[in-house]
Specification:
6-stranded mixed sheet; 1 helix; 9% helix; globular
Length: 108
């Protein structure tokens, strides 16, 4: 079976550039951990690149995903959203069978 890596939108890379992630020597780490109200949750933070990370690059910025989280994020889209309630990085994950209202917890 072909495994497609996640995609990162231009808007997400632009936001990383606005906050100066690369200037700080950091990348946006997207990880999947057990927990949350639906079984799994996303952990999104600025972090260093580590051995074994998949590195996605655009606009001089980097998004990294560890090898344990990668299967959970097959063909997902990492985006940045600005709404009246706030701004945040969001994951559109076709592998998730359900998610909670906050958008950070999901089940498969």
């Amino acid at each position: 079976m072909l495994t497609l890596p996640p995609k990162v939108t231009d808007r997400a890379f632009e936001r990383l550039a606005e906050i100066g992630a690369a200037d700080q020597g950091k990348a946006l780490r997207v990880a999947v951990e057990g927990g949350g109200c639906s079984g799994f949750q996303y952990e999104i933070e600025l972090d260093d690149i580590k051995d074994g990370d998949l590195v996605l690059e655009g606009a001089g910025e980097k998004v990294v995903i560890d090898d344990v989280s990668l299967p959970f994020l097959t063909d997902a889209v990492i985006d940045f959203s600005e709404e009246l309630i706030g701004a945040r990085f969001v994951i559109n994950n076709p592998n998730a069978t359900s998610s909670c209202g906050c958008g950070t917890s999901f089940s498969m």
